[in-house]
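Q: Two folds, back to back.
A: First:
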Amino acid sequence: MTSEAATAASPAEAAPAPEPIPHGLGVSLPAADARAKTEGTFPYAADLWAEGLLWAAVLRSPHAHARIVSIDTTHAREMPGVRAVVTHEDVPGRPVHGRGPAADRPVFASEVVRHHGEPIAAVAADHPDTARMAAAAVIVEYEVLDPVIDPELAFEAEPLHPDGNLIRHIPLHHGDPAAAGEIVVEGQYRIGRADPAPIGAEAGLAVPRPDGGVELYLASTDPHSDRDTAAACFGLSPDQVKIVVTGVPGATADREDQGFQLPLGLLALRTGCPVKLTATREESFLGHAHRHPTLLRYRHHADAEGRLVKVEAQILLDAGAYADTSPEALAAAVSFACGPYVVPNAFIEGWAVRTNNPPSGHVRGEGAMQVCAAYEAQMDKLAKRLGVDPAELRLRNALATGDVLPTGQTVTCPAPVAELLQAVQEYPLPALPKDSPEEDWLLPGGPEGAGEPGAVRRGVGYGLGMVHMLGAEGTDEVSTATVKIQDGIATVLCAAVESGQGFTTLARQIVQETLGVDEVHVAPVDTDQPPAGPGCRGRHTWVSGGAVERAAKMVRTQLLQPLAHKFGMSHELLQITDGKITSYDGVLSTTVAEELHGKELWATAQCRPHPTEPLDGAGQGDAFVGLAFCAIRAVVDVDIELGSVRVVELAVAQDVGRILNPAQLAARIEAGVTQGVGIALTENLRTPRGLLRHPDLTGYALPTALDAPDIRIVKLVEERDVVAPFGAKAASAVPVVTSPAAIASAVRAATGRPVNRLPIRPQAAVVTGQ
């Protein structure tokens, strides 16, 4: 051995021990399942298996509206390998009226088909091909009826449902109806039908239980609500139905539709065998809910300085065949119809109606996204009429803490709208593309699709958006969590589903921060745990995260009290930092690991935000717990001859309350902005005569990495909401709401065209006579 080698190997020169990985709140802790997902070993619902497995297939209606004359299952039942065929006659119960989004929807159509793809029958067989062939062998005789596809005609049409065609009407009256401004601008706007298009299609497994019940293994985002609906339809008590949440392959809306999971459970109960169903992409498009297509009419009044005097609007949501979450979406649309602006007088009429179009439901930012596109178009029109810079006009009317919403509710949470807008306004603009062959890819359409560089116009536009967090109008928001710690390892039990929003990572960070332990596990979710509610509107960051924090603090007290008593001091004078317990005076110093040795501690806690109230007959009431705001500046290049649009850059400023995980927060904002690009430019689920056209990822154009613009998060305002745990706000919905409006604003600036429809059609961006 050489002297150099001996020196390198000596203990004195040994490499220092690696520093501990930072953890706790405010740190970019990676997701626990990140490695499994990237390596392809993460267990999704489609990967499930059980001994004696049968395969299911669902027969769906090819018509948007029809009367069912007869259903003949004889041929399907006689096919070799078929174990069961079920129709509406085999459903022992029905959804409980008024409970959950499935309350007005049958498991299978019985007398009338109300939308394309509605389930008619389901089959279980010993092979997936056999199941599909048997489903196709079910003979259904239809009397095809004319569908009601125009929501404006639904008011006078024959009732499509026993509950009628009008699902909800909200008249909002705020201020003086006689108020008028010197400047008046009007507009009519249409928002198309968008699909959440989850990367993984629906899949699940149903396993019968010895007690006559059933266990459903699903990628559910609201397991307790799904359990209650299933139990009612199966004619069972809720404790006889258990839902186990399997790996959720991302969700920006409700993951499961009852036309998928309920037939699955019925087949398992009928056959006494495990039954698996994996939806095709077409079935996925047909089954789950979509974003509400919306018709909006607006009239804005302003004084000569551009300050808003009155806003009048009519909002019509196409709910499709069933109510689902349309009442909640309409409440958001009406309440936020004026946007994050001070409007002393507002008169809004909102309706949600049934049609024979595919059902609409919860999709990220529902209601708020549609009105944002309309009121921001109105602000652009007003700025043009006044000859004022569009950003300056918005600043003159920006909402702030202490202002009053059109619903009469005072904004008590941080509302830094002006600060957000100024941040994106002042951010440097991107450089113009070079007029050279090497830079052709920068042109709209790319090298093969772009026209002449001289036909490209650059536009800059702005969008201000707002969303509410948690439920609204008296929804009882509550979540329960248990934190256990044994042998220095903590476990969190909470029925909050990890759907990609990062809750499991946040729960680990909360426990690490509070208890000073490194190893924290989040238990799988099932309905044996207390309910935590649906995974939408930032609920789990607020409500479930709050429950985890409270439970962890209770365990912390159990840990510190004996130690504090021993030294004759209050446990509140002890602190936990980096795994060490120290007193305020430095007399006591020990480690968390030493104090936990041989101990088992646990606590259960709930988090329930302050109550809200329903909107009254005039659309007034304190309906929302908290609000989140966002400002986006869009820069686009438009080929005014071809109508092609390239989003160059989106500059984002957002109020987030408190940054809990910087990397995760940035990812959520970037994902939301990119989703908004699709809504603005490409995503349009076409339904001529109520029939889904091209229900696949070829016909439905999702934005790809090549479509994603440069996203610059220029400012995150950390002004904590004092009523929220940790002070944090929901992060992912408001950029989805805001970015389509900002992109449309930029296209208007580039072309001078009104752009009153989303997604933006090429013909809307073509400028003639140039």
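A: Second:
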Amino acid sequence: MKAIRRFTVRPVLPEALHPLSDLARNLRWSWHAETRDLFQSVDPERWAASENDPVRLLGNVSPGRLAELAEDRRFLRRLAAAADDLKDYVTGDRWYQSQSSELPAAIAYFSPEFGITAALPQYSGGLGILAGDHLKAASDLGVPLIGVGLLYRHGYFRQTLSRDGWQQEHYPVLDPNELPLSLLREQDGTPSQVSLALPGEKSLRARIWRAQVGRVPLLLLDSDVEENDLGERGVTDRLYGGGSEHRLLQEMLLGIGGVRAVRTYCRLTGHAQPEVFHTNEGHAGFLGLERIHELSYEDLDFDAALEAVRAGTVFTTHTPVPAGIDRFDRELVARHFGPDAELPRIEVERILQLGMETYPGGEPNLFNMAVMGLRLGQRANGVSLLHGHVSREMFSGLWPGFDPDEVPITSVTNGVHAPTWVAPEVFRLGARQIGAQRTEDAMTVGASDRWDAVAEIPDQDIWELRRVLREQLVTEVRKRLDASWRQRGAGTAELGWIDGVLDPDVLTIGFARRVPSYKRLTLMLRDRDRLLDLLLHPERPVQIVVAGKAHPADDGGKRLIQELVRFADDPRVRHRIVFLPDYGMAMAQKLYPGCDIWLNNPLRPLEACGTSGMKAALNGCLNLSVLDGWWDEWFQPDFGWAIPTADGTAATDEDRRDDLEASALYDLLEQRVAPRFYDRGPGGLPDRWIEMVRQTLTLLGPKVLAGRMVREYVERLYAPAARAHRSMDTSSARELATWKSRVRTAWPRVTVDHVETSAATTTAELGTTMSLRVRVGLGDLVPDDVEVQAVSGRVDPEDRITDGTAVPLKPAGGPDQEGRWLYEGPLSLDRTGPFGYTVRILPTHRLLASSAELGLVAVPSEELVEAAGVLMR
């Protein structure tokens, strides 16, 4: 019989054990080894059965065992120490508290998914794991972040395989009462709610669950409440599920409902209101509209409210391809806003203008969430240097007239939270070398000098550590492979071969990620004979562990998985290559440390960052990757290998490109990687391999930390956004909005009319300084509204300036009878070779974050350019 209702019966903890509940409810245990060890000692068997989830453990431990622990003085001392340590962690001063007082009092961080721990499965892949690591690092640093997301009742999905290797999805129901969450409640004890107005006088209500991530509260909105109709209850059913309207409602709830949840949380707890709002990808972009709507009650019109909101908003883009961005039909968006739906005080047309692709190549009837994010955020960034460059190219249509390099999108390269991803054995080796506290500081705050101690670790210790981690991975793989084959319908009698799968002394390669086509899961299968030779080499064999999920709607990705699985099922190689289904955090934490090589072969430049290789590197695993994402930025031959990328005509033929890059991959494995792993020095150790492990930890370790990433966000984005927010009071917002309107109206009459040069000498020699005189027309503007610049640098064969330098010119007179102003300034010939210059006019105002902000620029006419020619050749 099926129960008509489900609820959780919690144990009553003896008073002496009450701190266990606090420890379980703060997710710091997910990265704090001592707390996990404490929970394991409560009941080791049930700890394993609960998949290392303290809440589930405490729900299953027997009353007798609890009574026994309540009398165990040694356990109680450990419990008291852990509780005191947590209290000190969440209340004591950390890095952020030692910085200047100009930092924001609070930052709200919005993301559609968060990967904190396997016990809270609210993530699908890299975006969610990155968001979880961002929260954890912010907690370690003392950054006053408030996380905001949705609580999906089915999470993403659980993955199994059919007998013939086809991905199958399962959606287990998650009961929030069995998760490390607590309901946010009003003073009278009733659950807090937010509500959104829907068309047809309907509404969408959501409760607010809180997960405590160290010092950082994470608010998760849940629409599965009795007050909602059946359709609205299902809005937060699945991560990245449903059709367009379903996704739109999810993103409205995340952005608009999320701001309302933050306001509710701050009202109830006294937490400082955020000065900065950070939207992690475009899914949460509607948060800016809700904040504009809030300001409409303070008698700010739309334009002024937009300026006030933009000042304190940071937008991070994570996709290098337009197909990765959510786009909605404009009519669908229009139906959900306005007088009969949500945000009634904002004209629907103004909302639509923020997201419309009104640039060459755009789709004018589609509402683009990333475009809205960029228009609502005064500061924006990509997630690696290369991705910043790609993003500036991709979104350059929003800033017409500017070279892509001047598009105001910077980059902060992602990082990973070392205490989450570093194996305990690696941490213990570091602690033995420099002490536990210094090791913890090095992993959280990060500083290069703290990693230099790796150089002192003996080769033998490093090699023994690598073998221990590889052996643990072999055990884990066999256990998971056995479970997978049983799910596929195999019986015990046909699974004896699994005991011989993988070898703890064989070079082990890991490849695990989502399975869109651009990540090329099956590139390794391009020449199966060469792969067989690598796997079965008599002296230098390799073994490969593969994992990954395809999106439920992506049959192409599922076919790639099936192709890989069928190859791995071959009795000739199944002891050397395995595919493990249901890739998630728990598997990843075993996989990264146990691999010797982390393989990544995406189509360049389609990997925005790709942080799995960072997690592997922190455990002494070497990277073998295409130069894409973070590897393009930090690769050195000292600690890894770069897979050459096909270019020229080969890059346009997909089959030819994949053949060339697969061949390069096989060459590297055969000629460079495997020999270095197996070649032994005089002491019987692979000395050159160990040195590469040492260099990986020493040189890469401090760079790949989420602590480094969050510090960059604070210093380069959050602090400037907070200053801009504070300066954008009501009168300043109105002033800036009025000024922008005036400049946009006047700009068609802004012109560069005449340019002349005079040289101190007649020869164009390095070091020569020339004098520029420029006459410009400003129409209804005045010199205070603009900056006139000379831009000079080397020129390419098409006379385009590369690596240009901009120097402001000074007003020297005017207006003349024709209303023209004279500007003058020096032009230095500071480099040899083909050289050129031009002149341009930009809007300028003290409240602008960038001179490109308005997307307005005036340059010389074609006739003027042709008359001037190129200055020097």
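Q: And?
A: Residues 869-873 have pLDDT under 50 and may be disordered.
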